[in-house]
Design brief:
mainly alpha, 3 domains, 13 helices
Length: 253
């Protein structure tokens, strides 16, 4: 039951959180977890004196400084592994490439923000993961555990991933390179992005059979309104289009 290293407690505290984390949040979570969750378990089995002796063995004597230093060391160990090529799953680099093709960022900052949105917006990569795993909307915790297995748990993870990707792809922000990625995506016969694919999925739930003209209309709605409407709003716009077309046909009859 007793952990052998502070890193174990840090990771246990993070398991209870759904979402990406920053360093300061992890530091506070670590302290809260040790004294609100871990302490009652240890004290209940071994007693209060044993708990504080245990903290001394873990070098967690001074509440703030020692705990913060443990988190700093955890970060250093984590990113050392990543720089050695042992931290990120290769799928993540493909996802970065997809985001570059989709959003065509021109700076590192734009790419970082676009990738964060891609991972955390429910209608983007999260929707794809749920669809592939046949998971329902209440599995956010499992989704972030999946990201953790790939190598993404904190915002700094994303910074490190982007830097690693840019090191291997120095032409990322060049227009011709981004055009090439878009062309490659189209040639594979896949939807250009997951948002458009999700829009088709939502529409098909309401209207399973779509004509070619209706499919073209969905794409038109997406490309004209994706920045101002939610997926639900675009579905409603398509439904209004279908309703209007149906009413016109009735009048002609």
């Amino acid at each position: 039951m007793l952990v052998q290293h502070p890193f174990e407690l840090i990771e246990q505290s993070m398991e209870q959180n759904c979402g990406l984390l920053d360093k300061e949040t992890i530091k506070q979570m670590f302290i809260d977890y040790v004294f609100e969750t871990y302490q009652p378990k240890v004290v209940g089995k071994y007693g209060l004196d044993a708990f504080y002796e245990h903290l001394q063995q873990l070098k967690l004597v001074h509440c703030r400084s020692d705990f913060d230093e443990a988190v700093e060391q955890w970060f250093q160990a984590k990113y050392h592994r990543q720089k050695q090529g042992k931290g990120f799953h290769k799928q993540l680099f493909e996802l970065v490439k997809e985001v570059v093709s989709l959003h065509q960022p021109v700076t590192r900052k734009q790419l970082v923000h676009a990738f964060i949105d891609f991972l955390t917006t429910p209608t983007s990569f999260m929707a794809r993961w749920r669809s592939e795993k046949n998971e329902k909307s209440g599995t956010t915790f499992l989704y972030y555990r999946h990201l953790d297995r790939l190598g993404i748990r904190t915002y700094q993870d994303i910074e490190e991933l982007i830097d690693s990707y840019l090191l291997g792809n120095p032409d990322t922000f060049k227009e011709e390179h981004q055009r090439y990625l878009s062309q490659q995506s189209s040639r594979r016969g896949r939807p250009q992005n997951i948002e458009l694919s999700l829009l088709f999925q939502k529409v098909s739930e309401m209207k399973p059979e779509l004509t070619q003209r209706e499919k073209d209309r969905i794409r038109k709605i997406y490309y004209y309104h994706r920045k101002t409407l939610s997926t639900h709003g675009m579905v409603q716009k398509f439904c209004n289009y279908v309703l209007t077309k149906s009413n016109k046909n009735k009048i002609r009859r």
